[in-house]
Specification:
Layout: E1 2-9, E2 12-17, E3 20-26, H1 28-32, E4 42-46, E5 53-58, E6 75-81, H2 89-101, E7 105-111, H3 118-130, E8 136-137, H4 140-150, E9 155-160, H5 166-173, H6 184-190, E10 198-199, E11 201-203, E12 206-210, H7 235-238, H8 255-261, H9 267-282
Parallel strand pairs: 3-5, 6-7, 6-9, 7-8, 9-12
Antiparallel strand pairs: 1-2, 1-4, 1-10, 2-3, 4-5, 11-12
Helix pairs in contact: 2-9
The structure holds guanosine-5'-triphosphate and zinc ion.
Subcellular location: Cytoplasm
Main location: cytoplasm
Domain EngC GTPase: 71-215
Amino acid sequence: MKGLILQSLSGYYDVLASDVIYRTRARGNFRKRRIIPLVGDQVEFKPASLKEGYLLEIFARKNSLVRPPVANVDAAIVVVSCQQPAFSANLLDRQLVMLEAQKIKPVIYFSKQDLLSDQELKNFTKVFIAYACYPVFEDSVKLQEYLQRQLKQQVLVVMGQTGAGKSTLLNKFDPTWNLTTREVSKALSRGKHTTRKVALMAWKGNYIADTPGFSSFELKNLDSQNLRQLFPDFWPFQSNCKFRGCLHQNEPACAVKAAVAAKKIAASRYQSYLQFLEELQQKKPKYNRRKD
Ligand SMILES: Nc1nc2c(ncn2[C@@H]2O[C@H](COP(=O)(O)OP(=O)(O)OP(=O)(O)O)[C@@H](O)[C@H]2O)c(=O)[nH]1
Ligand SMILES: [Zn+2]
């Protein structure tokens, strides 16, 4: 049978096939091939009526995340708190770049606007405008309406900093999920995220995974030459740069820098770009051993 891995828990994989969930285990040959089945994997399996069945094959993945370990992710709700923890453009941009690199559609949700004073909220309009190339929501009902309209049979993850409000948001999606929320101070002071089992929850024709939060985010496996392709707000401009391979760094006649100066690209986005670029340029190149 063919199905979708919905849950992974201590070596067991729960596979959904035609509305029935089958418990399975991975066969030894996966371990030999160093393939670890992931939630979100499309699989072929042999069901068993009394005992658990066996996974036979894992079909090619479109992408896979490490945190959370989920494969074939179509879209991500990036939960960003306006306060507590304080908004960090850098951290948001890191998440967006990583999602772009994996071809996962980001949807941004700004939480905790109720904690902002009128003046602070006014200042935040700049932030919202900076991300106009993405779907941005501050209202959880509108977010749900958008997701229902746009997505069918898709795998979604909810990601964001520790204490950003991921579980609180998901409980609005479906109160019966009853996900535990914690005060931010407690969550942050422990310095670690709570581990939960990895599971996709069915939601209005789609599947959603809650993700443990993080406090820092490293850019991995990215090529400095390709970074500019991961900023969709640069796309309308960068074909006009004088130099074909312009990295928008020190090159003359750079259309992206001009767009930043003309406030068509947010300065904070360009700053993130430059910082990530330098970070990637400073990473030591990896040498692969020749096989001959
Ligand atoms: N005022 C206000 N508080 C919120 C909002 N969303 C979440 N919170 C609070 O923020 C705290 C953290 O929320 P959680 O939903 O547990 O955050 P999380 O992102 O799931 O956190 P981790 O699981 O640790 O990654 C809780 O005390 C929530 O009640 C909001 O929109 N406004
Ligand atoms: Zn340029």
